[in-house]
Amino acid sequence: MPLLPASLIEPLWVEFAALIGTADRPEYNPAHPLGCHRRRVEVRVVFDGVIAAQLHGSGYERVAVPGCSDRTIRRRLAHWADRGVTQALLRTALASYDRMLGLNPENLSVDGSITKSPCGG
Q: Which helix (H) or strand (E) segment is 84 a member of?
């Protein structure tokens, strides 16, 4: 059973795949001196792991699958963040939301309080 309907995930995946491009890294390096380099985990598998962790609100250890470890998810996410892919995806998502529903930051407010609770409750 998928975490989200395909109608929500697929457009996000299409935008994300366009942002990262195909020049990320080859599947494996045939010139590796030992000739035993492991194949690279597919981008879609890592993307699904990131989405699952965000939806569950859990760590990557909980959503890791046998073909994709939590370390792989973290490492790839850090790589994408260094390349600026996550910021570009955020800008794209906000622009899409603005086109669909209208995003007016002037109408937003933030409320918060940083005080001690009375009686430690």
A: none
pLDDT of residue 120: 64
Q: How many angstroms separate the CA atoms of 108 and 80, rounded?
A: 30
Distance separating alpha carbons of residues 119 and 37, to the nearest angstrom: 59
What are the tens digits of pLDDT across the range 40-98? 888 888 988 888 888 888 888 888 888 899 999 999 989 988 988 888 888 887 887 78
**Under DSSP, is residue 65 helix (H, G, I), strand (E, B) or coil?**
strand
Distance (Å) of CA 67 to CA 39, 64, 73, 118: 11, 8, 11, 49
For 65, phi then psi, to 5°, come to -115, 165
Task: Specify the pTM.
Answer: 0.69
Please name which of 92, 102, 98 lies closest in space to residue 13, comparing C-alpha atoms. Answer: 92
61's CB contacts (< 8 A; 6+ apart) are 70
- Token pair 């109608």 in the structure block, residue: 7
Pair 13, 92: CB distance under 8 Å: no
